[in-house]
Amino acid sequence: MIGREKWIEVIKDFHEKDIPKLIERNINIPEEIPLKRSISIIGPRRSGKTYSMFQIIKSLLTKVSIDRILYVNFESSDLQNLDSRDLVNMIETFLSLYTHNKKIWLFLDEIQNVEKWEDFVRTEIDKGKIQVFLSGSSSKMLSKEIATSMRGRNLTYSILPFSFSEYLNNEKLPIKNLSSSEKNLIINKLETYLNEGGYPEVILFPQEKDKILNDILETTIYKDIVDRYKIRNTKLLKLLIKSLISSSVREFSVHKFYNFAKSMGMKVSKNTVYSYMDALEDVFFLFQVRKFAPSYKEIEQSLPKIYVVDNGLLTSNGINDKGRLIENLVFIELKRRGGDVYYYKSTDEKEVDFVLLKNKKPTQLIQVCFSIHDFMTKEREVNSLIKASNHLKCNNLLIITYDYDGKEKIEGKNIVYISLWKWLLSKSSP
Length: 430
What we know:
The protein is of the alpha/beta class and 430 residues long. It has a domain at 4-159: Rossmann fold (3-Layer(aba) Sandwich). 45% of the residues lie in helices and 18% in strands. A six-stranded mixed beta sheet has the order 10-11-12-13-15-14. A hairpin with a 2-residue loop joins strand 11 and strand 12.
């Protein structure tokens, strides 16, 4: 166990250091809630969970004194092999140093490294005098695990790599009331964002993009998946990741991959492939989007379309098709905005990229393509959209393109066209 002297050192170390320089995020995580709940921050590795905590702390410091706030990073080398008793000693030491009877804020980073941390957190939030924030490696601190361990006493917020608006904010560029020159500059920046993605480190050090992204991918594979799931067949896992990246924004068949892996001489079962895919989704490396269908069984049996959490992970692995990059980017933005997302495919193979649902009913149909200036491309996209509109009884129809805006009425249906940069900077889907 860690003694009082060590905790005094940890506490004073935080209070005496300045808050690190931050890239401001558009986070909507409350500084406190009136309920007896902890707040957890989850997301992929290196997406900015720790700095989101610092951003909340920075905001708090405009209203309360530093002696009411404590941040502890449990990945620190001198804070290892702890358990809930150490946390009790930590909070007792903190309260003894600052003799006041006011509410305090506790930020516990990488809390999964502490044994039985849940016991401590549940006890403290039940007292009602501490607002607890939690974060951890995405593979070890998932919302479903927190929900189980905290018995419903937690609210979870997700942090993804930078959105386009956050990227522009970091570049000190305006996003409203734009002049023509500012619009042109934003479109130029969109090209960079489309290809390099939104990981904070890549934005800060673009010259090291490939090295950073490769390191993130390796960390995701080995630290977040291999260690957690005790995976031995790393060769199969790497082959699966490569195949999933190659299949991004397309349907992925486990059956076909299974046959492919067997043809490569690998010993594999379909259940293993499914479990590896679930693991990759657990650590926010990928998202599986299902086909919208009347029954839950039909939805679950449909082939998933694969989307990767950041475009940089695609381009650094050889995916440079603009249409695919735009579609992946649109999905991640939809994920960031929340809500249920599916795709649509008719019996004659007409497809709509995204079906947005509210209360299990389609509220918007979205097509994504690089350009509609080609007649055949436009006809394909529009025909699929109209067919889905008739079938799903949804008339909110949108086509996102790289650079075209407009409206059109076809077969009695109003179709809105919007350029990618405008849509990304809108607060919600039009």
